Amino acid sequence: MAKAPERIVIAIDGPAASGKSSTAQWVAKRLGFNHVDSGALYRAITAAAVRRSADADRWDDAFVLAGGKSIGLEPDGHSFAPTIDSKRVDEQIRGPEVTKHVSRVARMKPVREWVNQQVRAAAASFDIVVDGRDMGTAVFPDAQLKIFLVADPWERARRRLLQQLGRSPTDDEIAEETQRLVHRDAGDATQTVQAPDAVLIDTTYLTQEEQVERIVALARAVDHRDEF
Ligand code: CDP
C-alpha cells in the first residue's frame, strides 16, 4: 500500500500585531493549505467569559473554561472562523474589552490545553499554516517550517491602527497604541516562545507581499512532494 503523503505544518509565531494572522492567511491561500488562528480561539473564549460576567476579577479557570463549550470553528474558505453559540463573532473578538483581558485568560493552563486541543483537531489531516505564540514549540514541535515574525513596536501599532481605523493614524494615536501593545507583549511574555529552529523574519521594512513571498519560498524549500 502506498505510504500516506507527509502532512506539512507551517507554524508562524510572534508578538502582538506582528502580522501573523494576515500573513498566515495569505500563505495558506498561496499554497492551498488550511489556516488555523490560535489567537482567535483565545479571543473567543475570552469573549464568552465577557458575555457571562463583566466582572473579570471573578473569572477563575473553571469559569473561563466552561465558556469553551459554546465555541465552535466554522470553515471559511481556507480558514476557520470562531463562533459562540453557532454565531460568528469576528468583530467582537477584536474589540477592546476582549483585547484587555485576553492575556490573563491565555495564562490559564487549562485554557491553553483547551486551545491546543481545538487547534490540533482543526489541523488534523490537512496541510496547515497555524499562527500564534507557541505553535512551533508547544503544539507543533515537529512542524517542518517555523517562522518567528517580529517588527518594531511603533510600526506594529501603526499597522494595527491603519487596519482598525481605515485611515493613517496620527503620531499621538500610534504612541498610545504602542503603549498598549508593549503592555500586552509583557503580559504574553511567558507564552511567546521562539523555537530554536524558527526562521526569524523582521517585517518592519517589508511589505506584506514581501513577507508572504519569503515564507512561500521557505515552504517550497522544505516540501519535497513537488505539489506547489
Ligand atoms: O492579533 P494579535 O497579535 O493582537 O493577537 P492574537 O494572535 O489574536 O492573540 C490574542 C491573544 O491570545 C494574545 O495576546 C495572547 O495572550 C493569546 N495567545 C496565546 O497566548 N497563545 C497563542 N498561541 C496565541 C494567542
Structure summarized in a few sentences:
The chain has helices at residues 20-31, 38-52, 61-66, 96-106, 109-123, 135-139, 153-165, 171-187, 208-222; strands at 9-13, 34-37, 71-76, 79-84, 87-88, 128-132, 145-150, 199-202.
Topology:
Elements: E1 9-13, H1 20-31, E2 34-37, H2 38-52, H3 61-66, E3 71-76, E4 79-84, E5 87-88, H4 96-106, H5 109-123, E6 128-132, H6 135-139, E7 145-150, H7 153-165, H8 171-187, E8 199-202, H9 208-222
Parallel strand pairs: 1-6, 1-7, 2-6, 7-8
Antiparallel strand pairs: 3-4, 4-5
The chain binds cytidine-5'-diphosphate.
Question: How would you sum up this structure, described in words?
Answer:
The longest helix is centred in the C-terminal third of the chain and has 17 residues, at 171-187. Helix 1 (20-31) packs across helix 9, helix 2 (38-52) crosses helix 5 and helix 7 packs across helix 8 (171-187). The protein has helices at 20-31, 38-52, 61-66, 96-106, 109-123, 135-139, 153-165, 171-187, 208-222, and strands at residues 9-13, 34-37, 71-76, 79-84, 87-88, 128-132, 145-150, 199-202. It is α/β, with parallel strands linked by helices. Strands 2-6-1-7-8 form a 5-stranded parallel β-sheet, sandwiched between helices. Strands 3-4-5 form a 3-stranded antiparallel β-sheet, with helices on one face. Bound molecules: cytidine-5'-diphosphate. Cytidine-5'-diphosphate (CDP) binds at residues 16-17, 21, 38-39, 42-43, 102-103, 106, 132-135, 184, 188, 191.
> Quick one: CATH class of the largest domain?
Alpha Beta
Helix content: 40-55%
* Number of β-strand runs: 8
Structural class: alpha/beta
Strand order of the largest sheet: 2-6-1-7-8
Look at the structure and give the mean pLDDT: 94
Unreliable spans: none
Architecture (CATH level 2) name of the largest domain: 3-Layer(aba) Sandwich
What is the general shape?
globular
Rounded to the nearest angstrom, the distance between the terminal CA atoms is 24 Å
Percent of sequence in beta strands: 15-25%
- Output the number of helix runs: 9
Output the CATH homologous superfamily of the largest domain: P-loop containing nucleotide triphosphate hydrolases
What would you report as the Rg, rounded to the nearest angstrom? 17 Å
Question: What letter string, H or E per element, gives the SSE order?
Answer: EHEHHEEEHHEHEHHEH
Major sheet size, sense and barrel closure: 5 strands, parallel
Bound molecules: cytidine-5'-diphosphate
Predict the CATH topology of the largest domain.
Answer: Rossmann fold
What is the domain total for the residues?
2
